[in-house]
């Protein structure tokens, strides 16, 4: 099986190589006929892949983005409300601890009962939460339920130390460390070789996911991916993190990092080198934690170098996997000006949706507002289901010369 890619080079043969060749043509050729407007004016929708990915979403995106009254009027109110008052659906999860090649550990939380109730070829959605997030977070649980209602198999990738994932070496994870996600995707793919693999990541999880897509490029085994609230440019995000009310988020996240660190502090005793363990253990800001621990763990000379080289904005031009990016224009943590719009426009595999409001991980709008699923959830699933439907025709997987595809 191979993913459906829209790129200039043919996919590489692999264990997931598909068995038949098809050509798919849209009823309207975008090169010869101007496409009508398929989204509401309240939304910004751009990208080189818009002609392929926007039509299947037109019913949802043709409606205005209406933020919930009193909550959606302010980005900070919306961000905080969603974090504290969004419902957390009950989902029975079965944990699998995966030992990595460097003797580290990550935790994979699968929806309990899926092995017996879903066929082995059911599409699989891998979820990557944000910084310090995990399978306990409300936005993750809502996405799990929606995907599961469509008969998709779901698994949450809890990074080292997150979601009570075990930490077995003196190393956590970073915005650019791709070893764990590579091993997780390979592990899931080997376990279900007949299934298409997909991934969705929020915030830092989205940054890691896009970096992975760019690194793997033509070799990526994911069929499609979705990035939400991605900070993209970590240098810009860090600048804004220290301004005004954003200090509240900075302190909250650093407190969560300290809490995770304290559980595993004995692993870092007498570690030596350039580490500043007291700074990490008492960090008042995320930058302090990254200075004391993260940038040293991953061999960066300075925090600014770490942020610059870990920014997924630089990876977009190398992405060869269908990718949907969803951002909020008023996101206080993932600034709008950090979005790599020109590279997204130039990449035929990417589409960007920017909502006028939404805050960070908020999107308190739509049918589920104010306490239910974020506005983004149905958009995410419609996109993924569209790619999955294109990947499967008459029971066979697709292997395409990408120049022939116009969906």
TrEMBL record:
The active site is at residues 203, 331, 360. It comes from the Eukaryota. GO terms for molecular function: monoacylglycerol lipase activity; short-chain carboxylesterase activity. InterPro entries: AB_hydrolase_1, AB_hydrolase_4_sf, AB_hydrolase_fold, ABHD4. Residues 123-361 form the AB hydrolase-1 domain. GO terms for biological process: lipid metabolic process. Belongs to the AB hydrolase superfamily. AB hydrolase 4 family. This is AB hydrolase-1 domain-containing protein. It comes from Brassica campestris (Field mustard).
């Amino acid at each position: 099986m191979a993913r459906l890619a829209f790129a200039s080079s043919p996919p590489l043969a692999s264990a997931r190589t598909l068995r038949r060749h098809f050509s798919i043509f849209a009823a309207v050729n975008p090169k010869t006929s101007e496409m009508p407007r398929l989204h509401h004016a309240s939304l910004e929708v751009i990208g080189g892949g818009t002609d392929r990915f926007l039509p299947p979403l037109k019913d949802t995106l043709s409606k205005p983005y209406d933020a919930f009254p009193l909550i959606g009027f302010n980005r900070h109110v919306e961000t905080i409300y969603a974090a504290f008052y969004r419902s957390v659906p009950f989902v029975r999860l079965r944990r699998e601890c995966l030992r990595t090649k460097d003797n580290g550990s990550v935790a994979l939380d699968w929806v309990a009962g899926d092995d017996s109730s879903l066929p082995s070829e059911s599409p699989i959605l891998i979820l990557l939460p944000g910084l310090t997030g995990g399978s306990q977070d409300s936005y993750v649980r809502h996405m799990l339920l929606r995907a599961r209602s469509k008969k998709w198999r779901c698994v949450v990738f809890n990074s080292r130390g997150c979601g009570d994932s075990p930490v077995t070496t003196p190393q956590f994870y970073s915005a650019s460390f791709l070893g764990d996600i590579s091993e997780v995707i390979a592990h899931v793919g080997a376990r279900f070789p007949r299934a298409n693999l997909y991934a969705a990541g929020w915030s830092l999880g989205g940054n890691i996911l896009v970096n992975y897509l760019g690194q793997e490029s033509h070799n990526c085994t994911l069929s499609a991916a979705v990035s939400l609230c991605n900070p993209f440019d970590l240098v810009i995000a860090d600048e804004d993190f220290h301004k005004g009310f954003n200090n509240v988020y900075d302190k909250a996240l650093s407190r969560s990092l300290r809490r995770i660190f304290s559980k595993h502090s004995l692993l870092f005793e007498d570690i030596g080198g350039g580490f500043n363990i007291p700074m990490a253990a008492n960090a008042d800001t995320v930058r302090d934690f990254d200075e004391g621990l993260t940038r040293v763990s991953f061999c960066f000379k300075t925090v600014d170098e770490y942020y610059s080289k870990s920014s997924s904005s630089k990876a977009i031009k190398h992405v060869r996997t269908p990718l949907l990016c969803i951002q909020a224009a008023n996101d206080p943590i993932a600034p709008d000006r950090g979005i790599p719009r020109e590279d997204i426009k130039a990449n035929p595999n990417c589409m960007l949706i920017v909502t006028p409001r939404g805050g960070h991980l908020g999107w308190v709008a739509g049918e589920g507002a104010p306490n239910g699923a974020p506005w983004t959830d149905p958009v995410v699933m419609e996109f993924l289901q569209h790619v999955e439907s294109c990947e499967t025709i008459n029971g066979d997987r697709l292997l395409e010369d990408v120049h022939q595809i116009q969906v």
